[in-house]
Design a protein that fits this description.
Two copies of one chain form a homodimer.
Chain A: E1 2-9, E2 13-19, E3 25-32, H1 39-51, E4 60-68, E5 71-72, E6 77-79, E7 89-90, H2 92-100, E8 104-108, H3 109-120, E9 129-134, E10 138-144, E11 147-148, H4 186-199, H5 212-220, H6 224-248, E12 252-256, H7 264-276, E13 287-290, H8 298-315
Parallel strand pairs in A: 1-4, 4-8, 9-12, 12-13
Antiparallel strand pairs in A: 1-2, 2-3, 5-6, 6-7, 9-10, 10-11
Helix pairs in contact in A: 1-2, 3-8, 4-6, 5-6, 6-7
Chain lengths: 316, 316
Amino acid sequence: MKLVAGIDLGGTNTRVALVDEQGSITHQLQVPTHQYPVPNDLVQTISKWLRTGSLPPHAQLVGVGIGAPNGNYFTGTIDFAPNLKWPGSVPLAQMFADQLGVPVVLTNDAKAAALGEMHWGAAKHLKDFIFITLGTGLGCAIVANGQLIYGHDGLAGELGHITIFDNSDRVCGCGRKGCLETYASATGLVTTYRKALAAQAKDLQSEAAFDAAYIYQKALQGDAIAKQAFRFTASVLGRGLAIAATLTSPEKIFLYGGLTRAGSLLLGETAQSFEENLLPVYRNKIQIRCSSLPEDHAGVLGAAALIRQHIQNQSV
Amino acid sequence: MKLVAGIDLGGTNTRVALVDEQGSITHQLQVPTHQYPVPNDLVQTISKWLRTGSLPPHAQLVGVGIGAPNGNYFTGTIDFAPNLKWPGSVPLAQMFADQLGVPVVLTNDAKAAALGEMHWGAAKHLKDFIFITLGTGLGCAIVANGQLIYGHDGLAGELGHITIFDNSDRVCGCGRKGCLETYASATGLVTTYRKALAAQAKDLQSEAAFDAAYIYQKALQGDAIAKQAFRFTASVLGRGLAIAATLTSPEKIFLYGGLTRAGSLLLGETAQSFEENLLPVYRNKIQIRCSSLPEDHAGVLGAAALIRQHIQNQSV
């Protein structure tokens, strides 16, 4: 049995899965990323697990795929990832290849998850779709003509960093102002809610620890400010998605990540704003859906799809 | 000798060229489009020319490519083109195929010109680039992974119709407000200049007939309002190009069409605004250039490239 390993490297946890040719996960490992301030220690831990103990009898590890924030497919490096606390550029693909002696391919987390949707999810028969991850930031992967768009430097798909409002006061992690992800992300939702509370002179101290999940609970309880924060977040998201759709005319757009747990609270307003902001000729043709992949598994399955595809291309 | 015909269908004129395998034009025809209120009459005129008189001895017409406003590659139709005065959907590819008995392929004018740049121009070795036409409107074709992006319905690349300003009062031909092409096009330049004159309470009557070429002449003569109108047009264009580049990360962006005759008056400010609006990681990596194809020939050469590519794909 030929297995691949899919690694989903996140700021908090790193998940590793051994995946067979049908996309079934045979074994899993989870390690806390932040306990590895030196990337090589994480590589050693995972490699050791992959070499010993995890492989069933008669099984062979034939490759490793990695999805990581700021991962670059062309160079196999993670470059200046603000959520990882590893400084500079980390040649992670090469580090794993040196340890394991099998092909290793790396890409960014949104692109990996899109590949997962394409190989083992609801995008199986789609040639043109967009995959959006809504977490701390907004990640995006664009598939056109059945292929991921990497661009000339591997960095295509940064929809989160288009300027969505003139004269915005929201400073983005990239150093500019008014980027889409300062509105349409878990962080953006929290900012919107916080601003709305402040505008009503509410006591922020008492709600100091809130996050997107808290705002969702408040909204479910009928809190007007929380509901309005969701509506505004969704309307800005819809506007951003309309821009992406105008450029690449996808058949579907998939949303993925923590914020999508809000379900219709997010989706309904997003779809409405999306349609309003579209060129008439595109209207009522493009579906916005939640990803069909389980939230815990999309990353590892996508990374596994990435290396499967690589091995297949090499053998042609 | 196997020749293809490239047809560049425009609102004012339609150009037809017979093109050999090296991209050389052997014969040309130009007819005034607006003198053909019924599309079939234009098809008859061009088909007659292609059948008789135009082909050299021992030459064979093996296919026809067409670039046209609102042309749809997937359906071979021109759909509701505001500049053509032909109502509804016109099945132009089928009409030519019926007349000539050879394969006919049609696409929109910007996509055809991009193919011309890719086959016979400065994009020959590029896998990722964007091609922009600046005329009455703003046309756009995106090439990624060496292929044109059509999207699921053939309508990808409508960069001219992304909303570029909040609360804009500029009404677009598509029925919405604030679209990029209401600013970054010959029409947009004229609007900007006209608004600036009005703001200074200048007499609009005396300058009633101005167009983009007139404003360019005024700018060359040092007219401050004309120069400022160009700067503003270019800065909005740069902002729009930055959005497109953020999504597809091209190696180069080519500008084409009447407005590019303004040369550095347009290019300099466009490039500066482009860089300012880019995510830092993309800066100083993406070149903005004028198309290398002669303005009169890009359309027919692009249409010829389209049919050559089609014939090649069929024979694989």
